[in-house]
Amino acid sequence: MLSASSASVVTATLPLVRAHGEEVTGTFYRRMFAAHPDLLNLFNRGNQATGAQRQALAGSVVAYAEHLTGATDLPWNAILDRIAHKHASLGITPARYTVVGHHLLAAVAEVLGDAVTPQIAAAWEEVYWLMACELVAREARLYHGAGVGSDVDVWRAWRVTGRTDDTADVVSFTLVPADGGPAPDFTPGQYASVAVDLGPDDRQIRQYSLSGRPGLGGWRITVKRIRATADSPAGTVSTYLHDTVAVGDTLRLSPPFGEVSAVPGDGPLLLVSAGIGVTPAMSALAHLAATDPDRPVALVHADRSESTHALRAELGGLVNDLRDATVDLWYERVTSDHGLPGARVKAGLVDPDHIPLVPGVRVHLCGPLEFMAVVRRGLLARGVPGGDIAYEVFGPGMLRPDADRR
Ligand SMILES: Cc1cc2nc3c(=O)[nH]c(=O)nc-3n(C[C@H](O)[C@H](O)[C@H](O)COP(=O)(O)OP(=O)(O)OC[C@H]3O[C@@H](n4cnc5c(N)ncnc54)[C@H](O)[C@@H]3O)c2cc1C
Ligand code: HEM
After folding, report:
1. Digit-coded pLDDT (tens) for 220-233
2. pLDDT tens digits for 79-115?
3. Ligand 2 centre and the CA of 83: distance in Å?
4. Whose CA is closest to atom 18 on ligand 1?
5. 406 pLDDT tier (thresholds 50, 70, 90)
6. Which part of the chain is the Globin domain (predicted)?
7. Distance, CA 242 to ligand 2 centroid (Å)?
């Protein structure tokens, strides 16, 4: 809890800090990367370039300050869990919090100048460390649960045992631990970080959902190639994986992390996905087909067309093994009538009013943020409680708190 004296200082200075948020963020990263260039390999360069992650770190400290002073009602437990799982998958150590805290507070002082009295600096330092302690504690528990030692080395070598080019832009890799040990178990919906060396001292890390069935000797990831457009370059890691990784190669992966289960509860389940967001749903279907084939499950999947729909070929077999499953495929372009047994194919964008619902259903969403916001609003309007709708974002950020109302 924030001390009473700091609470009043933070309340009074929140508008000022918020107003200079972007400048503070830019200054923070500039200072930190100048002092610790090795950290450039830890942070996602694409997100840095687009600004997607830049706001996330400093922005969440400001949001936490609002929470501590009673100015918001955000779901903090879920937010801290999400950040902690992401951090754990990157192997963030407690010592790094001292570095980040130092540069973040120095950035506030640099940007706000004389406005930052020692009392104001101390109050914001208290906010930072309250949040940092929450995260460090959660991350310590995650490391312990994953068997990560006190050196917080999360990386393990995995050998690529299979490569399947699934669509023109999607490839799947099957992997087993290179040391011959067992593959850690995971819950459908969880992901692993993959660290790739692009050159000397040039490393990048990305997260990929585990798209196969838990409990096997190995894992599978399914990666969509991000192609260059007129305004943006090709994706760094997805291009590397597509262009260079072959059977027999070694990749470095973290243990499985991720707080969002794609098989929540034990009653009826609705999986709604779009594009490459189908990966957690496929893991969930494979898991249920093997362990709970009578569980009622509906998959609603949106894609450009049949030919872009990743892992489509294995859907038929899974649906066959599930005794109470329905599949609705919404394709923007219905290009052929290569029917999938048991699946209904519809043309156009997913219409939330036509998503099959049964009482007590638990929902898992995965796809672009805008897609998930539309589906979530539609489901809420049809009476599904917000707490029964989980979602995964394939990038930094969460659904905006006002997403339900727009
Ligand atoms: C929990 C989680 C699970 C995920 N699961 C999957 C999965 O199962 N399958 C999957 O394919 N992906 C998944 N992702 C996404 C994945 O982690 C990567 O984000 C994705 O592969 C893109 O990485 P990249 O390195 O190829 O692209 P990046 O290089 O990170 O680029 C990302 C975007 O930023 C743009 N960009 C980069 N630099 C610039 C610049 N200088 N100017 C303008 N624009 C720029 C790129 O054009 C691109 O559009 C998941 C993400 C998360 C967080
Ligand atoms: C109180 C301190 C911190 C806060 C509030 C914080 C907050 C965040 C948030 C909100 C995200 C985005 C999560 C998501 O939605 O995916 C994130 C990701 C990340 N954080 Fe932190 N963080 C803190 C400390 C640290 C530290 C100490 C490091 C290590 C130097 C670090 C490195 C990262 C990295 C590398 C990512 C992923 C970035 C990306 O993929 O672009 N963070 N953090």
Report:
1. 999 999 999 999 99
2. 999 999 999 999 999 999 999 999 999 999 999 999 9
3. 7
4. 206
5. very low
6. 1-140
7. 27
Specify the ligand 1 atom closest to the Cα of 225.
26
Q: How far is CA 275 from CA 23, 174, 308, in A?
A: 35, 20, 8
Domains of the chain (ranges, CATH numbers): 4-145 (1.10.490.10), 156-253 (2.40.30.10), 269-392 (3.40.50.80)
Instruction: Report the pLDDT value the prediction gives residue 274, as an integer from 0 to 100.
Output: 98
pLDDT of amino acid 122: 97
For residue 206, give the ligand nearest its CA: 1
Q: How far is the CA of 365 from the centre of ligand 1 (A)?
A: 19
Active site residue 306: no
CA neighbor of 85 nearest in space, from 310, 379, 380, 398: 398
Q: Could you tell me whether strands 389-392 and 362-366 are parallel, antiparallel, or unpaired per DSSP bridges? A: parallel
Token look-up 């049949």 returns 306
Backbone angles phi, psi at 74, to 5 degrees: -70, 155
Residue 279 near ligand 1, beta carbon < 6 Å:
yes
Point out the catalytic residue in the list 29, 97, 143, 191: 97
Answer whether 209 contacts ligand 1 (Cβ < 6 A). Answer: yes
Q: How many residues does the chain have?
A: 406
In percent, the amount of the chain with pLDDT more than 90 equals 86
Angle made by CA atoms 323, 328, 334, in degrees to the nearest 5:
135
89 lines ligand 1 (CB under 6 A): no
Give residue 126 CA to ligand 1 midpoint distance, Å.
34
Instruction: Indicate if ligand 1 lies below 6 Å from the C-beta of 207.
Output: yes
Any ligand 1 atom below 6 A from CB of 257: no
- Residue 41 near residue 3, CB atoms below 8 Å: no
Q: Is 97 an active-site residue?
A: yes
Convert the pLDDT of each residue in 36-76 to its tens digit: 999 999 999 888 887 766 778 888 999 999 999 987 778 89
**Residue 74, pLDDT score:** 83
